[in-house]
Amino acid sequence: MDDATDPTDQSARAIAAAEALGLSFTETRHGPVRSLAEAAAARGVEPRQIVKTMVVRVAEGDHRFVLVPGDREIAWPKLRALLGANRLSMPSADAAREVTGYVRGTITPLGSLAPLPVIADERVAGRVSIGGGAHGVALTVEAADLVSALGATVADVTDPAA
């Protein structure tokens, strides 16, 4: 689907942002997937190579992107310590869309409406596949290039997924 037929498809914005950052990437478009394993298979990568972009609320009007390998989840105590915050939360789907311009499941730091600081887990490495701004759209990039282009802080902020 393109932007004209699917109002949630913001892939053109994400791709333009990746190009503006000078990232070399491969675009993948696939149909609906129901699991991390299906998404990885559709993108031709291992589950750990899929990078989930999470929006975290630090305080009112203060959000961060956290890049999390597909086989891991945010370690809240580690992230709170890194940010020096006593409390962090995930914003509602509506609040995340308001900040990023992307619906949940399509969120990417590439082309976000608000230029949020990015934290990348230290395990985001090698070739990775990050969301491309629409369901079933992904960009495969070198993690080091992505982290550098986004000016991300790299830290240990995840634990193995339960």
Strand count: 9
User: Biggest sheet, in brief?
Assistant: 7 strands, mixed
So, CATH architecture?
Alpha-Beta Complex
The CATH superfamily is identified as: YbaK/aminoacyl-tRNA synthetase-associated domain
- Overall geometric form: globular
Strand residues, percent: 25-35%
Q: What's the total helix number?
A: 5
- The CATH topology is YbaK protein
Extract low-pLDDT stretches: none
Q: Strands across the major sheet, in which order? A: 1-7-6-2-3-5-8
Average pLDDT rating: 95
Q: What keywords describe this structure?
A:
single chain, 162 residues, alpha/beta, YbaK protein, 7-stranded mixed sheet, two-stranded antiparallel sheet, 9 strands, 26% helix, globular
Account of the 3D structure:
InterPro entries: YbaK/aa-tRNA-synt-asso_dom_sf, YbaK/aa-tRNA-synth-assoc-dom. It is a single chain. With 162 residues, this protein is an alpha/beta fold. The chain has a single domain (10-160), classed as Alpha-Beta Complex (YbaK protein). It contains 5 helices and 9 strands. The strands form 2 sheets. A 7-stranded mixed β-sheet has the order 1-7-6-2-3-5-8, sandwiched between helices. A two-stranded antiparallel ribbon has the order 4-9. The N and C termini lie far apart (34 Å).
